Amino acid sequence: MNNQQQHQKTMERVQQGLDRRYRKERHFRWLGLGAIILGLLFVSFLFITIISNGYTAFQQTYVKLEVFYDPEMIAPIGETDTEVLSRANYGGLIKASMRQMFPEVTNRREKKVLYGLISTGAAYELRNAVMSNPSLIGSKAEVWVVADDDVDMLIKGHIDLRLPESDRRIKDNQLGWIHLLQEQDRIEKRFNTTFFTAGDSREPELSGIKGAIAGSFFTLLICLTIAFPVGVAAAVYLEEFAPKNRWTDLIEVNINNLAAVPSIVFGLLGLAVFINFFGLPRSVPLVGGLVLALMTLPTIIIASRAALKSVPPSIREAALGIGASPMQTITHHVLPLALPGMLTGTIIGMAQALGETAPLLMIGMVAFIVDVPGSVMDPSAVLPVQIYLWADSPERAFVERTSAAIMVLLAFLISMNLLAVWLRKKFERRW
Amino acid sequence: MKKLISAAVALSLTGFVSMASARDYISVVGSSTVYPFATVVAEQFGKTSKFKTPKIESTGSGGGLKLFCAGVGVEHPDISNASRRIKSSEVERCAGNGINDIIEVKVGYDGIALANSKKAPQFKVTRKDIFLALAKQVPDPKDPMSGKLVANPYSTWKEVNKDLPDMAIEVLGPPPTSGTRDAFAELAMEGGCKKIDWIKAMKKKDKKAYKSLCHTVREDGKYIEAGENDNLIVQKLEANKGALGVFGYSFLDQNSDKVQGSLIDGVAPTFELIADGSYPVSRPLYFYVKKAHMGKIPGIIEYLAEFSSDKAWGEEGYLADKGLIPMPTEERKAFKSDIEAMKPLKL
What we know:
The complex is a heterodimer. By secondary structure, chain A is mainly alpha-helical.
């Protein structure tokens, strides 16, 4: 009896506590859920601001002009000497066409403003057209040319027309001309191919990310060709051959340490070793790739060692048992099984290298480079550097281009990470 | 196969080394303030000439001159931009590394604006107000003539000058590494500092103390270092009506719908008023060319010719469209003839 009473008492106490415990558990779960929601909110906020700022950059305003390829201004009909053709005054053709369209503009200052509606890049377009087809000289043609960035901003609705005239980049007289052009259907927004086919420019409407993408490609190519074989070899040696002693412990601690070293330190190292000691030129993808390879090596070594560790010892023993040499064991059995894990680690390391700017600052890759690089020895910038440079430019139209470049970078990062996930899913083996 | 690989590696290595020993493009380093102007010229030059587009790194004036003075040869830059004049210590450093002839070119002028949001009333300050509001140490407000210094006690603009609005002092500006900050301290703060007679007298007696008094910015959070990115300062001003920002004229020009420049000593930071020299906070911009590289690296002479042509740095030139304040005609002529004669710098 006494015993039963006691039992009941205990049950009561448990019951009382149970509610509290359930409540605590619920709170604990909510806390975790809250953390996830908060994270997602931040990410979606980031994505929404970038996309809403940047999507307009994929379109560009064009203006239709009637251009007379005046033989007097370019070269006599039949002239094919490229030197003569390339040096002709193509800007003059555009000015003549604008004058013809707005004959009422005669004041020198107003004319300058009028010509400003068309980008300075339009003259190069005409030049390229004539140089590829000299028979154009003497003919008349309707040509769509790139509009100035201020006009572009107006057409895209980034200029507030309610403001007083003095506060606007587009003045009332320009507005009148633009409306006139719009009435004649001479203004049109098109897909911005320049953004993907041109290098950097100080004119927002002529700037593109091809140079930065090529620079990133060459840099990552060098980084991969050095970091992957070296990283895998180091991991194989440490995991399969190295004796376990104080030295290997020291090396292991150092590798783990290096993975956490701020990336700018690798930039300083690169500056001292590759540029000052070996005398390689500044701002080239070769040096950038070498520096980034140093930076990603620890990541690759750690991931590769983890992948090697996860291959069960029974496989090694079986291979050795039927008479394979240690090298055959590793190259025929262990490496193929560990490779998916190694590749995943490498891709993640590459994605990290793709988004890196700090070490490149030290070796001169934060630079204005117009020509699209064609090899690892041409000066070039990389995607994140391009974003940084555009974010720091005074022209308003660079705001949307900055966001657009971020979108391109994010697209590359996401696809690389997806590739890593897919590789892991496809080739992962469980024992 | 193995032999093939090792041969390829050896070949590519020798290739890199031989490629490193030649350079067919101009390498420019230096100030982030001159960068937006130099890049425009470089791009024009690349598109209209048969030479490659020069490479321009934005390293800051000091960092650029350090690289520039490291030596003669293809691995060193040909030109360094600077938002201040080269220092005698830097000229010595150059000479120590075998660079004896440097050609100095003044590009034009840049106004430094003290601006705030369009939604707030426009500020009208004097340089003395700026000094009193931002210096670390100021004359004791109870007895300003006594020569006694106290840690800056002002927390609102009204306390500095009763004609100013009753707003907390909050100024966003560049960090000490920036040339803009140096110029702001020298032109705006020292300019106001000199207005106080006994401090002016100090200049003769103890130049060091005078300089540190006039140039040191307060560190109690009223002056906020907002980084080198001027666009960021503009964005912060838009969000915070009570704050003022310090940045270059070209950013004011591009963002005239969002921010307004304050009147300093009664003069507004407009193109015309900076150009004629009446706006007090404006500074010259320079670049320096290594004479030893001229004729060795293709295109330097032509690049200088493009820079000093009227269509670039003239009153109606494309640099003026980007916010550079051109030099007066006489000064432009003088620098142009110096360039053509390759006249080396003498300090």
